Amino acid sequence: SNADALAEIIATAALAGELSLLAALASRHLASAHEDLGR
Predict the structure, then answer these.
(1) Contact 30, 39 (CB under 8 A)
(2) Rounded to two decimals, what is the model's pTM?
(3) Rounded alpha-carbon distances, angstroms, from residue 5 to 11, 13, 14
(4) How far is CA 19 from the centre of its chain?
(5) Which of 2, 6, 31, 33 is the least buried, fewest Cβ under 10 Å from its Cβ?
(6) Rg of the chain's alpha carbons, rounded to an integer?
(7) CA torsion, points 13, 18, 32, 34, in degrees to nearest 10?
(8) On the CB side of 26, how many CA atoms lie within 13 Å of its CA?
(9) Contact present, 24 and 30 (Cβ < 8 Å)
(10) From which residue to which does the signal peptide run (predicted)?
(11) What is the rounded distance in angstroms from the CA atom of residue 26 to the CA atom of residue 4?
(12) Please, which pLDDT band fits residue 29 given cuts at 50, 70 and 90?
């Protein structure tokens, strides 16, 4: 149904965001960006 398809899309987007965040943490891009911006 449409609700199942929407739930799958939302779950996929959330998983992609989590993977992106973990990749940034692992490669230290997140920390260096925060240092550069003073945040």
Answers:
(1) no
(2) 0.67
(3) 10, 12, 14
(4) 5
(5) 2
(6) 15
(7) 80
(8) 6
(9) yes
(10) none
(11) 33
(12) confident
* Residue 11: pLDDT over 80: yes
Grouping H, G, I as helix, E, B as strand and the rest as coil, residue 10 is helix
Query: Tokens for 9?
Result: 């899309």
13, pLDDT greater than 90: yes
For the chain, give the number of residues: 39
pLDDT tens for each residue of 14-26: 999 999 989 988 8
- Specify the amino acid at residue 24: A
| Tokens standing for residue 10 | 């939302």
pLDDT of residue 2: 95
